[in-house]
Amino acid sequence: MSSAATGMELVDLSIRIPLPGTPRRWVYPARDISLPFHAGSITAIVGESGCGKSVLALAAMGLLPAGTQTSGSIFARDIDVLAATESELRNVRGRGVGLIPQSAATHLTPVRTIGSTMAESLAIHGFPARPIDIAHLLRTVELDAETARRYPHEVSGGMAQRVLIALTCALEPTILVADEPTSALDADTAALVRRQLRDQANRGAAVVLITHDLVAARAAADHVAVMYAGQILETGPARVALRAPAHDYTRALLAALPENGLIPPPGTPSSLVDPHPAVCPWHQRVGVSCSAASLSAVGADHLVACDSAARC
Ligand SMILES: Nc1ncnc2c1ncn2[C@@H]1O[C@H](COP(=O)(O)OP(=O)(O)OP(=O)(O)O)[C@@H](O)[C@H]1O
Ligand code: NI
Q: For a substitution probing ligand 1, which of 15, 16, 17, 271 has the most ligand atoms within 8 Å of its CB?
């Protein structure tokens, strides 16, 4: 790992998943991604739907689909997750890397009460929890103790999301990956979740916030990485990159916010199937010639991809 303060680091990470039903064709959700996630900070990964954000979350947990091929590394707690054995991964998951998954409700066991699922999960990771501990955890996400006696189908999607957040945070993971943690929540609960993520960063976790919501990223994150078609096009301090962006894709995402007139990004999202290695998908989408140069510095800790001539 390059620095003691790095909680997780992606190094030259590429991932390809077999395209279902078509031999020898591949989906490329990550291409040549190098990205640090600093301990004590929240890093947002933003980008349109389908650009590969959730696949990165699964990769960090060692949960890529069968048949997936990877190159490069994902260093988490000094282990390369991509090279780890299943027993090493069992040690990494939970207290090394905690994942708050997209659609959390489907991750609770349907035939067991929420309290027993929480108690079992905590015990597996070495935290024996009494009912009073479960009640306390539920209160941290503003759920009452009685929620422990309910079954998943008896609570709303937002409540299930809060249960998963309480459970994941209770393990105090070194790296906390939250995949769209607020998309199913009302504004008050979303603010509560953002406070939880900040608390986790303050105790030293490297927090990864995956979201398509730039307003949420700007409100919550210290650093941001802007992803398009499996590549990082811009990365830097959130207050810089999401206020004075250097890449035209980041500008296009910001233009789509209500405050900026809801102008959708031009063209249609690029396919991730067998992309041309020497063509930049974003600039191809907008009809500008660009050879997809690697990231270069435009300011302190602020990196941007693409030929400068290609930037609109
Ligand atoms: N198990 C899988 N098998 C085949 N392709 C997959 C699999 N999982 C993801 N993909 C493909 O990888 C690409 C990236 O998907 P991913 O879910 O990571 O996007 P995302 O940026 O998280 O989008 P969203 O915001 O909609 O969740 C998509 O083209 C998707 O179809
Ligand atoms: Ni480009």
A: 17
Task: Give residue 311's pLDDT band: very low, low, confident or very high (50, 70, 90).
Answer: low
Question: Using CA atoms, how far apart are residues 242 and 45, in angstroms rounded to an integer?
Answer: 12
What is the whole-number distance in angstroms between the Cα of residue 53 and the centre of ligand 1?
8
Sheet architecture: strand order including 206-211: 97-100, 175-179, 206-211, 42-46, 223-228, 231-237, 302-304, 296-299
The pTM (predicted TM-score) of the whole model is 0.93
Domain ranges of the chain: 6-96+173-310
Question: Which residues are close to ligand 2, an ion, with C-beta < 5 A?
Answer: 280, 283, 290, 306, 310
Q: Rounded CA gap, 37 and 58, in Å?
A: 16
Domain covering 6-96+173-310 assigned CATH 3.40.50.300 in the classification: yes
ipTM: 0.95
